[in-house]
Amino acid sequence: MSKFGELIDVEIPVLFEFFTEWSDESEAMHDVLRDVAAAMGDKARVIKIDVEKNQDLAEALRIKGLPTLIIYKSGDMKWRQSGELDANTIIGRIQEYV
Fold first, then answer.
1. DSSP helix/strand/coil, 12
2. pTM greater than 0.85 (yes/no)
3. Of 37, 71, 77, 98, whose CB has the highest number of CB atoms within 10 Å?
4. What's the rounded mean pLDDT across residues 54-75?
5. Which domains are present in the chain?
6. CA 42 → CA 14, 53, 87, distances in Å?
């Protein structure tokens, strides 16, 4: 999890999507997150984390529903929500922390 600490300890917002390959809701979010990443450019990062491959991290963050979206900035969790959202809503959330 020290690598996760390096990912979140940056000055720009970092949006994480915690997902699984078999979740239809997670699959639907992939295109949305691609749009979010393109719209934000270098103002934010978007990182997808498969909970089945990162079970310790998922447990530490108490990930229950999928997909779960979390925004970190400067090492602090700023926002968290489970479930699908549209790109504009996510972009609006990230811009609050840019």
1. coil
2. yes
3. 71
4. 96
5. 2-95 (3.40.30.10)
6. 11, 27, 17
